[in-house]
């Protein structure tokens, strides 16, 4: 960057920052004013490498002119379209392009504005599907300990990170939680762990307890992201698929983080060879530029709901003012073109060995207690301090001061650079991690 954008801080009284301790922020503001490629610059011009693709959304790096141009063109052509029997051509174009990337059989796409909206849409879609087949008694959902499925009320009910649920008791859905799949013997295992397949039997146990025919759907993140990257044990997703099939339960993969090449294949379903019935995606859907999410489902799920509908009413009375927003569709189409033209998923795959070698090279550092990783996504578990989560916050701050943005979650760091990252920048990110996590006094 040539010069600082603006060296004074903005007035900070009025904006209530999300997911932030606002008191602390005002004491120690961390303000990003510009971004390009895998770099941010703070308001006073300091360079900070982006080790978390923003929040795992900017797969093609920041400041892509192709997306900016497409957004500008769309704004000047058609800036908004209503629903209720109206639509824009670009939303069909985008859904068709997406269908070409999705796992075989999932080719119907419903748009929303965020990952949380996608999760709540998927919950309602599963209920609508069962109801239209005369199985309205299926109203229970299953998710997992340590799961993150967004912050709307449905996603909050599914939450397995207890802190995300605790303050909001009395929420709507009946949810049973399977155990998470991490265990002591998996410490420092790279890729899919050999142990933990037995945890899939928790689903059978829940079916025995409540009756398999009362369960609408099982929601899982194929790789649990927000807890700090927990990779599924070998055979685990396959076993969940088999149990769901045996009981007529829908399997939903929440691919808000894992989608768009993060693990290698376009989606985790393809990477692990397990096809869900319903899938959520967001974040890299538009390379993080314009808020947007999508739910994809199998053809037959949409057909069943449409065929069961009577009269002229919408068959699925659901949607958002900003569903299928034409400007977001333009950003998404431009992002998909970049992914295709630059072979970005293959690029991520080719970089993964170097990435994981670097991550697992952090093993002997003073602060490191466990390492996990798959594709271009890694979790660095830190030795906890006296209060859970404090070490993670301190590490996130110290890394920022040393020139690296990495998101902390509890006492883990989620390291997931953009798929466009160059080797030299990846090495610099790893050097900062080495330096900061090697400090005994952190
Ligand atoms: N599901 C998963 C798996 C996620 O990781 C996230 C966000 N980190 C969400 C849902 C929610 O997405 P959003 O923040 O866009 O609402």
From TrEMBL:
UniProt entry tagged with the keyword DNA-binding: no
CDD domains, sorted: OAT_like
Cofactor needs: pyridoxal 5'-phosphate
Protein name, entry field: Beta-alanine--pyruvate transaminase
Transmembrane parts of this sequence: none
Pfam families (alphabetical): Aminotran_3
Domain of life the protein comes from: Bacteria
Similarity section: Belongs to the class-III pyridoxal-phosphate-dependent aminotransferase family.
Keyword Transferase part of the UniProt annotation: yes
Sample GO molecular function, one term: transaminase activity
Keywords tagged on the record: Aminotransferase, Pyridoxal phosphate, Pyruvate, Transferase
Stored InterPro entries: Aminotrans_3, Aminotrans_3_PPA_site, PyrdxlP-dep_Trfase, PyrdxlP-dep_Trfase_major, PyrdxlP-dep_Trfase_small
PROSITE patterns to which the protein is assigned, alphabetical: AA_TRANSFER_CLASS_3
């Amino acid at each position: 960057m040539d010069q600082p954008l603006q060296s004074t801080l903005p007035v900070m009284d009025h904006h209530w920052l999300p997911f932030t301790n606002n008191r602390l922020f005002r004491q120690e503001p961390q303000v990003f004013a510009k971004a390009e490629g895998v770099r941010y610059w703070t308001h006073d011009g300091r360079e900070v490498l982006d080790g978390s693709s923003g929040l795992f959304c900017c797969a093609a790096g920041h400041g892509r002119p192709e997306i900016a141009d497409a957004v500008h063109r769309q704004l000047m052509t058609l800036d908004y379209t209503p629903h209720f029997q109206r639509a824009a051509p670009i939303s069909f174009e985008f859904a068709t392009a997406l269908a070409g990337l999705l796992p075989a059989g999932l080719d119907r796409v419903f748009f929303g504005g965020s990952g949380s909206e996608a999760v709540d849409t998927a919950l309602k879609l599963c209920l609508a599907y069962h109801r239209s087949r005369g199985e309205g008694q299926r109203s229970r959902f299953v998710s997992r300990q340590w799961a993150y499925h967004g912050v709307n009320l449905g996603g909050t009910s599914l939450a397995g990170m207890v802190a995300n649920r605790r303050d909001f008791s009395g929420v709507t859905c009946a949810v049973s939680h399977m155990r998470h799949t991490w265990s002591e013997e998996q410490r420092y295992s790279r890729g899919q762990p050999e142990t933990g397949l037995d945890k899939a039997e928790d689903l059978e146990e829940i079916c025995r307890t409540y009756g398999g025919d009362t369960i609408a759907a099982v929601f899982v993140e194929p790789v649990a992201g927000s807890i700090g990257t927990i990779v599924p044990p070998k055979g685990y997703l396959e076993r969940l698929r088999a149990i769901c099939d045996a009981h007529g339960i829908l399997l939903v993969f929440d691919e808000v983080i894992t989608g768009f090449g993060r693990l290698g294949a376009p989606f985790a379903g393809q990477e692990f060879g397990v096809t869900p019935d319903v899938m959520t995606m967001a974040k890299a859907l538009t390379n993080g530029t314009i808020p947007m999410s999508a739910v994809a489902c199998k053809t037959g799920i949409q057909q069943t709901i449409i065929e069961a509908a009577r009269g002229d009413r919408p068959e699925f009375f659901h949607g958002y003012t900003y569903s299928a927003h034409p400007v977001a569709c333009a950003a998404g189409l431009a992002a998909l073109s970049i992914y295709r033209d630059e072979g970005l998923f293959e690029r991520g795959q080719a970089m993964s060995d170097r990435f994981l070698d670097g991550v697992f090279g952090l093993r002997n550092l003073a602060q490191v207690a466990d390492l996990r990783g798959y594709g271009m996504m890694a979790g660095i578990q830190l030795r906890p301090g006296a209060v859970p989560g404090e070490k993670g916050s301190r590490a996130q701050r110290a890394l920022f001061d040393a020139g690296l943005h990495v998101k902390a979650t509890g006492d883990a760091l989620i390291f997931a650079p953009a798929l466009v990252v160059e080797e030299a920048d990846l090495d610099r990110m790893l050097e900062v991690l080495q330096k900061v996590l090697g400090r005994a006094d952190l």
